Structures are given as C-alpha cells and as structure tokens.
Amino acid sequence: DTGRKKAGKLHNESKNYVSATAQAKIVDHIIDEFNEEEKSIYKRGLNSKGAKKRGNDIEYRKATAYETVVGYLFLKKDYNRLNEILEFSKNALNKERK
After folding, report:
1. Are 62 and 23 in contact (CB under 8 A)?
2. Distance between CA atoms of 38 and 44, rounded to whole angstroms?
3. Average pLDDT, stretch 37-44?
C-alpha cells in the first residue's frame, strides 16, 4: 500500500515538470537565460509544424519549443549547459509554486 502512495506522489510531482502548462510557465521565467543559439532553436520549435498541430495553443507551442531546446542540448552532448537549463527550470517551478 505504501508503494502506491509513493508512486502516486511521484506521479503528481512529475506532472509539475512534464505538462505543457508547466513547461510554458518555465519558459516564461527562463527565456532570458537562453543564449542566441538556444533562442534560435527555441523559435524553430515554437514555429514547427508539430507545435502548430494543436492550432494556436500557445502553451503547447511554448512547451514544444522548450523540449526542442532540451533535446538539442542533449543531442549536442552539451550536458553542462543542459544541466544549467534544467536547474533554471526547477528554480522557475519552485518560484511559480510560492
């Protein structure tokens, strides 16, 4: 029974990071932390065909663009910068919750 409670708590906590709503809020807080290259990648993700599939849902488009930057840094193997972005993201969510 305690395993279920822990799993449920983890699931609820993970929603704070993986939902389009949460990721859009993250971007609103950290966009100024992106360097020029990351801003360019972000704009490409924001305007991508996949992001536009859901109409003009700006929240979904921002989340897709955020994931594009994270994925780009991972594929580029720039793990130090990726960790910085993820730390900025975590801090942004913590501010949002207060």
Report:
1. yes
2. 10
3. 97
